[in-house]
Design a protein that fits this description.
By secondary structure, this protein is of the alpha/beta class. The chain is 42% helix and 18% strand. The strands form 2 sheets. Strands 3-2-1-4-5-10-11 form a 7-stranded mixed sheet, sandwiched between helices. Strands 7-8-6-9 form a 4-stranded parallel sheet, with helices on both faces. It binds 6-O-phosphono-beta-D-fructofuranose.
Length: 320
């Protein structure tokens, strides 16, 4: 193997740059050439690619976002788009691809591999932590830290004004960010898609707190559960509490990555190069109990991501 390419795809996540750096530097260390593909699979189709050298990844490790830019490519979902991408694989002499992204990006990589045989290795980069086959994805830790910082700031004003705050966090269809941030942020209730909730229970919990003198509360809602605005409206209607809603939104995707994400991204990026060099394909680098693993992407994605119900129960117990 002489020349590999890498791209970032889907929603960006803090630590993607550190991962790019690791892929480029590890590959160059082993004498490989590296091509950076811009704007996810779109850059593949449009031949928007740049040769990467040691200097191309200097001074990026600490930056959020991705220097390669990212996109959710609709064109790559079509056979015609993938055919164009393969033309560029041949034209640029690419012999293996590292895809840093989420499940949609990996599915695209697998289809491309099936159609054209080009080796692909996935590195899980998404704040949602929703990829089966790995305990953690790059960016999750930073996003949770960002959310916890926001919750703590909101708690200050919630206390002063004796208000109930509904804080909506990202996570797409899953509640991993909400659970981790809610537990770490001491939320009174955490609403996640994985666990059904009812308003009677949420309000009873609030009223119980109120009866013992608690005048402010924080409720963390995962975006995939319910609209925070609707939750706020229902709670206000049922309890009469002064209720405010904050949607954290895309600020959870930015910022300097946490040390944990920087280390994870560096380890995973380097391992992706090892896997390509070892002749592996359709594998995703994961982390299980602290150890890097290589898992078959298709079998990983066919499984359901497990949810930590124990952690969820702990959050409920501690916010009694
Ligand atoms: O997958 C990452 C994520 O931030 C999700 O948490 C969120 O639902 C989605 O992307 C938002 O996507 P976009 O940036 O396209 O609005």
């Amino acid at each position: 193997m002489q020349r590999i390419a890498l791209l970032t795809s889907g929603g960006d996540s803090p630590g993607m740059n550190a991962c790019i750096r690791a892929v480029v530097r590890k590959a160059i260390y082993h004498g490989l050439e590296v091509i950076g593909i811009k704007r996810g699979y779109n850059g593949f189709i449009e031949a928007d690619m740049v040769p990467m050298n040691l200097g191309s990844v200097a001074d990026i490790i600490h930056r959020g976002g991705t220097i390669l830019h990212t996109a959710r490519s609709e064109q790559f979902m079509t056979p015609g788009g993938r055919a164009k991408a393969f033309e560029n694989v041949k034209r640029f002499g690419i012999q293996g691809i590292v895809v840093i992204g989420g499940d949609g990006s990996f599915r695209g990589a697998c289809v491309f591999n099936r159609e054209y045989g080009i080796p692909v290795i996935g590195v899980p980069g998404t704040i949602d932590n929703d990829i089966p086959g790995t305990d953690q994805t790059i960016g999750f830790d930073t996003a949770v830290n960002t959310a916890v910082e926001a919750i703590s700031k909101i708690r200050d004003t919630a206390t002063s004004h004796e208000r109930t705050f509904i804080i909506e966090v990202m996570g797409r269809h899953f509640g991993y960010i909400a659970l981790a941030a809610g537990l770490a942020g001491g939320a009174e209730s955490i609403l996640v898609p994985e666990c059904p909730f009812n308003y009677d229970e949420v309000c009873e919990r609030l009223l119980r707190g109120y009866r013992r003198g608690k005048l402010h509360s924080i409720i963390v809602v995962a975006e995939g559960t319910a609209s925070a605005i609707e939750v706020g409206r229902m709670i206000k209607e049922r309890t009469g509490f002064d209720t405010k809603v904050t949607i954290l939104g895309h600020l959870q995707r930015g910022g300097m990555p946490s040390a944990a994400d920087l280390i994870l991204a560096s380890r995973m990026g380097a391992r992706a190069v090892d896997l390509l060099m070892a002749g592996e394909t359709k594998k995703m680098v994961g982390i299980k109990a602290g150890e890097l693993v290589a898992v078959d992407i298709e079998s990983a994605l066919s499984q359901a991501r497990s949810f930590d119900h124990e952690l969820c129960n702990l959050a409920i117990t501690l916010s009694i």
